[in-house]
């Protein structure tokens, strides 16, 4: 095949990876100058990259917006595919490298907040001891956001609650996740035996919207017809725990998130019938997604006794560990 006919065959592949990178940087920063800084190129090079894409497609991808720059609906549509394409190529590069060096490569994980704080780090620690040459990146976000890096292929695996049924994500159970009702030991409902759900018309501490813990709490409240006297929204497990410990209210939270506080006596469990709510942590992956070697090794590792032991040990207080 001569070069002209080859070029005409690939004529449809008019977008270069460099141009797509430029578009992604512009989308991320909403600014040509900041995109240029991120990519270490000049501002005219950024503008030229976007203009070349617009010329090829025959549609506007960005509009000026005061001092910034904004994507048009066409720009937004292209950005979704550009992110996936570049991430898929990165996976391809990783696969090529990993094939030549087993035990090496990158593991990119996303995790929901609670799992990312209390469950994934000890598993990663044990995994890293077994695979010291794997480079690990962990991205933590709440339930509403955690599947995004998976679907854009910017993460190989995610750890979170049950995946939506019938979607493109499938889950493999990793560990139990029991949700308990907790309060300060000095809270009026604490230390007095079973607490009927009807007595829970008190102040409740809730995580931010988008949190899986919050969604479960809202289901619990609705199932018991409960109207909290007051709701305080706090944006992290740490803030919720501190607020509960000083007596601000009660909350439903993963037992793993409060194991150390229970051992230290700064928080206590309320014995509410129907709790703990039994849930599971799942390792989540795209149904039709490619799993690089390190991600496959991590997935297998999550099913081992060593992974479960690592979590158990991390959540034991120093006093328990010594006994
Ligand atoms: P969260 O997620 O940490 O965002 O609340 C927990 C979950 O999905 O169960």
Overview of the structural elements:
- With 323 residues, the chain is of the alpha/beta class.
- 47% of the residues lie in helices and 21% in strands.
- It contains 15 helices and eleven strands.
- It has helices spanning 3-9, 17-29, 32-39, 43-57, 73-100, 113-118, 120-130, 143-146, 148-151, 212-223, 237-245, 255-264, 293-302, 305-314, 318-322; strands spanning 62-65, 68-71, 105-112, 134-141, 157-160, 169-183, 203-206, 230-233, 251-254, 268-269, 277-286.
- Strands 3, 4, 5, 6, 9, 10 and 11 form a seven-stranded mixed sheet that branches. A two-stranded antiparallel ribbon has the order 1-2. A two-stranded parallel sheet has the order 7-8.
- Strand 7, helix 10 and strand 8 (230-233) form a beta-alpha-beta unit.
- It is globular.
- The protein starts with a helix and ends with a helix.
- It binds 2-phosphoglycolic acid.
Q: Report the structural category.
A: alpha/beta
End-to-end separation: 75 Å
Strand-and-helix sequence, N→C? HHHHEEHEHHEHHEEEHEHEHEEHHH
Tell me the Rg in angstroms.
24 Å
The oligomeric status of these chains comes to single chain
The distinct bound ligands, ions and cofactors come out as: 2-phosphoglycolic acid
| Uncertain parts | none
Number of helices: 15
Which word captures the global form?
globular
State the helicity in percent bands. Answer: 40-55%
Question: What's the number of extended β-strand segments?
Answer: 11
Main sheet specs? 7 strands, mixed
β-strand percent reads: 15-25%
Mean pLDDT over all positions: 91
